[in-house]
Protein 1
Amino acid sequence: MTLETIFGPGTLLGDEPALMIAGERRVLTDVVSTPVINPATGGVIAEVPHASEETVDEAVTRAAVAQRAWARRTHQERAEILARARDLIELHSEEIARIVTLEQGKPLEHARGEMQAAQNFFDFAVSQKYRNIGEMVATESGEQLLVREEPIGVVAAILPWNFPAAIFCRKVAPALMAGNAIVVKPAELTPLSALALAQVLDAAGLPAGLLSVVCGPGRETGSRLIDHPSVGMVTMTGSTRGGREILARAADKIIPVSLELGGKAPFIVFADANLEQAAKDAVEARMWNAGQVCTCNEITYVDESIYDEFAALVARHVAAITPDDPLVDGSPMGPLVSERERDKVEAMVKEAVQQGATVRVGGGRPGGAQFEAGSWFQPTMLTGVTSDMTIASTEVFGPVLSLASFHDYDDLIAKANSTPFGLSAYVYSSNLHTVMRVIDDLEFGEIYVNKAGPERQQGFHTGWKASGLGGDDGAHGYERYLRRKTTYVGYGPAYGQ
C-alpha cells in the first residue's frame, strides 16, 4: 500500500515516505523506520525512515549556509515568501487536515480547525515585516547607542504529536520570519503532516536549505540535532520530562531554549458563576482533542455549596459525547493517539477509583465492534476527587474530567497552586472582585476568565514553574527567535571627525 492509495493521487507526501532535507525529498531505503499507525483502526499508514547521523549533520550544515543569505534579506522579502506559504497552506488545508486525522486521531472537523491555526501563525509572522527591529538609546553628544535585533542562526524544533500541523507552523513561521533556518524533528507518532507542510513551503519558494524535516526517535535523532555544534537554539513543545532532558543538553552548549511543557490546569467554579455555561465549558476544555492538550481542564474545583448541582450538569454533557470514526462528519471525539496512551489513561482511572474516586460516566473502552481495534477510550467523569489522589497532581492526557470541591477561598488557592505545573487556569465567577483576586493569586502563566480556550496566536502562551520557559506565539514568542547586538557609534569633533 502506498501513501497515494490512502491520501489520493498527487498527495503532498508522494507515493512513499521521504524525509525533507534542505528542500529535497530524500527517500531512504535499507534504514530503520517507524510505522505510522492510524489510531482509529490500529492499521499501519506508512513506514517513515529514521534520519541517520550523517543526514542530520547535512541538514544542519546546509541550514547554516542558507541562513546567512536569508538573514541579509529584508523583512519584506521574507514576508512575501511566508505569505505565499500561508496561501498554499490554505489551498492544501483539506489534504493536510486529513493527514492529521489519520495519523493523530482527532475528528476531521477539529483537524480543519488546526489548519486554520496553522495559517494564523504564518499570518502573524508575516505581520512582523512592520515591526521595530531595534532601538536608539540616549547617550552622550556625538555618539549613538544602537540596539538591534539579529537572528540566532539555526533553530532545532522538537514537535509534539497532539497538534502536529499547528505547532509545526507555530515554530517554523516566526523562526523563518526572524531570519533563521530551522530543522524540525516531528514526533514519531505523527511525522506525515510535518513532511507535507515542508513540501508546501518548498512550493512557496523558500530557499533551499532553510527548512529540513528529520524523523526518528527523540533520544537518537532529536539528540543528534540538539547536540550539533551549529544549532544555536532549541524550541520544543512536549512533556516536562522531555523538556528537562533538552534543557540539560542545551546547557552544555549554553544556547537559548523555548520550552512549552505540560500542565495541570485548575478549572475553578464559584457559586455565583453561570453554572450552565461553566459546565459546558468545563467539558469542552477537558474533552477537546480527547483530552490530549496541555491546557486542558485537568481538575475542576467547585464550591461545595453547588457541587451536586454542578456535577449533574457536567455528567449530562459528558454522557452526550459519543466517540465516532474521526473521518465521519460531526464526530465529536476520536481515539487517543496510541494504545500506549490509552493504557496510561485507563490505569490512572483505575488508580483513582482505588484511592476513593467514583466513576460517574464512562471509564473504559466504548462498546461495539467499531471500537475493538484502535486506541479508544470513553469520555469519563470522576467525582469525589481529593488532593491526595494521584490523578489530582499528575497530568492526564485523556478524556477524563475530575471533579473536586473547595470549602473557602484560601482552601481553593492552596489546592490550585499545589501543582508543580503553572501553564493554564480557568476561573468562573460573576463577581469582578473575586475574579481579579484569583488572577492575582494563581501561579499560572495563562488564565481564562468565564471562557474556554484555545489561546490566540497574538497572545503569549507561556508557562510558569515546570510548565516551561518561554513560548512561541505573539510578539513575545517571536522575540525568542532573536538575539540583540549593541553598537556604539562615535562621530563629530569629539571623535576627531
Note: The mean pLDDT is 95.
Protein 2
Amino acid sequence: MAFEGLTNRLQSVFSKLRGKGKVSEDDVNEAMREVRLALLEADVNFKVVKDFIAKVKEKAVGSEVMDSFTPGMVIIDIVNKELTDLMGGSQAKLAKSNRPPTVVMMAGLQGAGKTTTSAKLAKLLLKGNHRPLLVAGDIYRPAAIKQLQVLGEQIKVPVFTLPEGNNPVEIARQALQHAKDNGNDYLLIDTAGRLHVDEELMEELRQIHEVTKPDEVLLVVDAMTGQDAVNVAESFNQQLTLTGVVLTKLDGDTRGGAALSVKAVTGCPIKFAALGEKIDALEPFHPERMASRILGMGDMLSLIEKAQSNIDADKAKEMERKMRNAEFTFDDFLEQMDQVKKLGPLDQIMDMIPGMGKMKQMKDVKVDEKQMGRVEAIVHSMTKQEKQNPDMINHSRRKRIAAGSGTTLTDVNRLIKQFDEMRRMMKQFSDMMGPKGKGSKMMKQLGKGGKGMRFPFR
C-alpha cells in the first residue's frame, strides 16, 4: 500500500513521544531527525523535507506544547496539519465551466496511464450525473484510439474520433463543437505522450490548448517513478501551466514521495489519485484524509463514502434483519463478500479503519485476497440446501465439498466452524444491543480480550 514504509516509521517515532509525560527540546530534535530520515527514505524531495522539518520544529518547541499535559499528542497533531498543508491543505475540485462543456486536457509522458485515467475520470463524472465526451487525440501510439473506444464502450461514454489523416489539433477542434452540439458538459481530451519531455510534444499540446482553451490541464504522472514524477510535473508546468496533477499507481508505491512533493515543488494541486487498475479506482484527492492515513489514523470518511456509493441500502437492511434473527445463510455470506469486494482491495479498506494498520503487522492477522477466493470456492461447492441449512453438512458432505472446491477437509471444517461462531456472535450482539438495555453485557464480553472475535475464515 502507498506510504507503508513511511507510516510504519512515523508510528514508531510517535509511540515514543506518546509515552512521555514531558517532552524536552532534545526529545523533539531526536524525533524530527527520525521523521526527516523517514521522509527521505520515502523519496520525498530534499528541499521539501528540510522546509517541512523546520516548520514542525518551530511549532513543536513552543511553550504551549512543552507545558501541555499530552505533548506527544500535540506534536502528532502539528505533524498531521503540516502534512496536510504539504499536500495542498484542502481538496482541489475539478473545474466546472459556466458555459459547457468544461474542457479537460489530459497530458503526460507515455506509459503514465493517460488513456485509462481519462476513462476513469469519465466514469467518475457519470456518477455525478454529468455527460462526458472522451476524445481520442493520441494518433501516434498504436492501438491508443482502440483502447479508448473499448473503455468508452465499457463505461457507456461516447468517444469522439476522426478518420486517419487528421491531426490532434483538428480532432480537438471538431470534438469541442461536437460536445456543444450534443449537450456534453465535460470534454476529456486524451493527448499523445512521449518517452521524455520534448519540444515537438509541447508544441502540439500548446496548439490543442490554443484551440480548445481548456478549463483544466491535468498532468497524469506515475507515482511509482518517485522523484522523477515530480521532475516531470515541474517540466510540464513550466511549459504548459498545469491546473492539477493525477497520480496513478499510488497503490503500488510503498514510499509515496511523489504525493508528498509534487504540490510543494510545482504549486499544482493533486486533484485525483488512482489506487488500483479497475475502471472505478480513481478517487478525488483529499490532503487531510491522506495525511491521516500516513499517520496510521485511518480514513473513515472515505470508507463511508465508498460504502454509500457501492452498497445497496435495502440489501444492507435486509441483511441486518437476517443477522438479528439468526437467519444468516451461506448465500447471504457470499452476498456480503461481494459487497465488501466492491469497496476495493482488503488492504486498502483496512488502511482506512483507525488502528487496523497496526493490526495488519501482527502475525495472526492476515489480509489474503486469495483466501477469499478459496472461501468462495467452498461455498459454491455446496448444494442449495446446504447453503440454506449449514447444520445438515455432515462428514461425507464435507469431504465432497472439499473435493469439489479443490481445498482440504480441514479448510471446510474451519470455514463451517467459524461461520457458526460468527452467526452465534451476531445473534448475541443483537440481543445485547436490543431494547432490554443489555449493552453493558456486550462491553464485558469485549473486555475479555474479544475471545472468539476473529476475522472470519483466516
Note: Residues 358-366, 436-458 have pLDDT under 50 and may be disordered.
Protein 3
Amino acid sequence: MFENLSERLERSFKILKGQGRISEINVAETLKEVRRALLDADVNFKIAKQFTDTVKAKALGQEVLRAVNPSQMMIKIVHDELTQLMGGDKTDINIRINPSVILIAGLQGSGKTTFSGKLAKWVKTKRSKNPLLVAGDIYRPAAIDQLKIIGSQIEVPVFTGEADTSPVQIARNAVREAKLKGHDVVIIDTAGRLAVDEEMMNEISSIKEAVNPHEILFVVDAMTGQDAVNTAKEFNDRLDFNGVVLTKLDGDTRGGAALSIRSVVNKPVKFVSSGEKMDAMDIFYPARMADRILGMGDIVSLVEIAQEQYDTEEARKLQKKIAKDQFDFNDFISQIQQIKKMGNVKDLMAMIPGVGKAVKDLDIDDNAFKSIEAIIRSMTPDERSNPVILNGSRRKRIASGSGTSIQEVNKLVKQFDETRRMMKMISKGGNPARLMGRK
C-alpha cells in the first residue's frame, strides 16, 4: 500500500533540491505534483486541495524562509499535515465497562468476520480480556461456520443462536450469556450486503438499539478506494459509529481511503488489518503511517514487534553462553525462530528507514530461512552443540540429508563461525571492525 504515492511524493520534493530557499514559485510547483499524487491515490479532490493549501500557507511562513534545507523542511511540513489528515493521535477502543459490547458493521466482503476474530485475539492477548464472539450473520452461507473455525483457532468461544432466531435476539442473548459466564468483551459480527440497502441498515440499527454497544466499528475494504469513504459516510449517518477499521492493506490499493476517511466522517481510523492470519492486525498510528508514506520506515512498530517476541530470561541465558564462547547451532536456530515469529521478513525490512524502497522489488518470502533450518536440522545433537567436529564427511552427510549442496553447508558453517566470533568480541567490549579488517 502507498508505494506509488510514496514514489510520486519523493519526485515532487526533488523540485526543491538545490534551491537556496522556499519561494512561492518553487513551492507552487512542488505542491502541484503533491496534489496530483494525492488524486492518483484516490484521495477526495476537496481534501487534496485543502491539504496542499494548508501546506503552502505553512511553507511560506517566515520561519521556513530561513530554513537551511527547503526540501527537508517541505517533507517535515507534509509529514505533519499527513499525520493530522489521518487523525493526529492514535485512538483506543472503549473496553473499560464489563461486559463491553463491540458491534462490527460493514459491507459484505469487507472482512468483518475475519477482523472480528483478529479483534477477539487482540483483546485476549494484548488487553488480558475474556472475549465472546457472536455469530450475528445468519444470511451468508457458511458465515457461522467460518466464525466457529476462527474461534477454535484463537481459543475464543462463539455464541450462535437457535434456528429461526433473529440477529437482534441473538445479540441480546449473547450479552446475557456473557454476563452469566464472565466474558468481559462481546464482539458481535453482523451481516453485510453487496451494497448499502434499507433492510440491512434497519437490522443493524435494531441490534444497536437492543444491546446499546459501547463501541461500533465500521470495517471497510481499503481496496475500494473512494467508494469506501462514501460507504462510511452512509453508515455513519445511520449508526454514528465510533471508529473505522481498514482491511486488506496488503492488496494492490492506492491508499485514498486511509487519507480521506477521517476528514469525511470525522471519525478516527482505529485499526488496520491485512491478510488472513489472526495476528495481522494493528492499532492505527497516523504519524507512523505518514512515516511509511514518505519513505521514512516505521522503526517504532518494528521495535514493538520485536519486544513482543523477546524473552528476557532466554536473552540472559544467551548472553552468558556468548560470553563463554558456548553459542552453538541450537542457539542459532532458536534466534531464527524468534525472527520468524515477528512476521513476514520483507514487511519487517520495509519498516527500517531507507530499506523499504530497496526491498520493494525483491522476492523475499517466509521461506527465506528454509535451507538454513534444513541444514541445521540434519545435524546430530552432538554436531549442533559442538560445531568444531563438523569435518568433511559430516558436512557431506548433512548436505545429503538436507537436500542442499556441500557448498551451502560450508557457507553456513563459515557464517556461523564469523557470527560467533563477532558476538563474543562485542560481549567483551571489543571492536568488531577489527574482525572485519582481518578478511
Note: The domain at 3-85 is CATH 1.20.120.140 (Four Helix Bundle (Hemerythrin (Met), subunit A)).
Protein 4
Amino acid sequence: MGGRSTRIAPLDPADAELFAAARLRAARLQPYLATAVFALVPVASPGLGTFAVDRYWRVYVDVETARAWGVEHTAAVLVHEAHHVLRDHHRRAEACGVTSTTHRLWNLAADAAINDDLIDDALPLPGGVLPRHLGLAPNGLEEAYYGDLLDDRDLHEERDEPAVEPPGCGSGSGGAPADGEIDDHPEESGVDGLDDVDAAAVRRAVAHDVTAAASRGECSSPGLVLWARDLLSPQVPWRNLLRTAIGRPVREVTRDPHVDWTRPDRRADSRPDFPRPGVRHRAPEIAVVVDTSASMDQSLLDAAATEINGLLRRSGVRTLHVVSCDTESARPQRVRRLGDLVLRGGGGTDLRVGIDAAAACRPRPSVVVVLTDGETPWPAAAPHRTTLVAVIIGEHAPLPVGPGITAVRITAPT
C-alpha cells in the first residue's frame, strides 16, 4: 500500500519536474480525467521515442522526446495514454481475440477512437492517427474500427500518412509490450502500479466526473461520455468487488507466519540440543467505521454489513472495533458481529474523525473498512500502515482516491 517497496527508480529531478508540469497541464486539459492522470506511475524509458502504458497503469516516459514536444504536447500525450487504461483496452483486446499478428491493427483502432475524441476537445496532440487516416468514419468504437481494419488489412498501408506507423503504445493499449516493459503484477511483486481493484475504483471515479461534466455541458468528447455511462451501468456484482477489496489486505496479514517461541517447532525433537521456534499465523485486526448520518440508505447499509460480517468471520476475524460516526466519532465498540452494533448519529458527515479513531484502536487495525454514502471529506491517504477500504453506498458520490485507499460502490442490495 502506501509504504510498500518498489523496484521502479524515481525520475531524475529535472525529468520529474517536466513530468509533473505535463501532468498538471494534462489535468487542466481534461479536468474530469485528473484522477486517472495522477494515478499513472511514471517509468523512465530513455530511447523509447514516445510514451507507452502497460496494463498496470505504468506510463513509460522518454523524457528527451517529451522535451522536444514541450509541456503542452506532452500533456496531450499523457491524456492519450490515460485513455488507453481508462477504457480497459488491454482487456477489450483480449475479448476481441486480438493476437500477436493483429495487435497492431487493434492499437491503431484504439488510437483512432481516442484521438478522435481528443481532437474534438481541442487537445494539441503531436501527430497521431485519426479515423480518416484509416478510411474510417468518425465517432466510432474501437471494436468497430478493429473489425473494419481486419476486413481490409492492407487499407491503412495504402494511405500516404506517416501518422499510421505503429504507435507502440504498450500492452495497456492492447498492442505489443513496449521495450523494457515491467511485466510484474503490483500486488504479487510489490512493484508500483494499479491492480484490478484499484484500477476499477479509478475508472468509476473518472466515469462519475465525466458524466457530471457532461451534465454541465463541459465535456465535448462524445466517445468518453458513452464510455462513462456504459461503465456506470451495473456490470460486476458489488459483492465480488467487496470480497476482493477486503480479502486482499486481510490475506497480506495472514499469509506470512510469525516466529513464536511459545510454540516449539514440531520437528524440534530431532535436535533437542538446538531449540527452534514454532510459527503462528497472525489473525487480522479489523476496524469498521459506520456512517450514521441521516442520508444513509438503510437497506444498502444492512446488505453491506451482512456481507462484511460473513467475509471477516471466514477470514478468522472473531471480534471487530466498530466506530459509528457522523460529524463526531462515538467511542469504538468491540463487537463479535456487526449485528451487535449500537449506532448513534443522524447529523452531518465528516468521517475523517471516525477513521482517525479507528486507526487509534489497540491493537492497531491493519484494515479499516468505511461504510458510507460518500458525502464526506476524505483523508488524502490511508492511516500509516493501514489499508482503507471505502464502501460507498449509492450512485452519486465520487469514489475516494489516494495512497492506501481502495473504493467499492454498492448500488443494489441484491
Note: The longest helix spans residues 196-215.
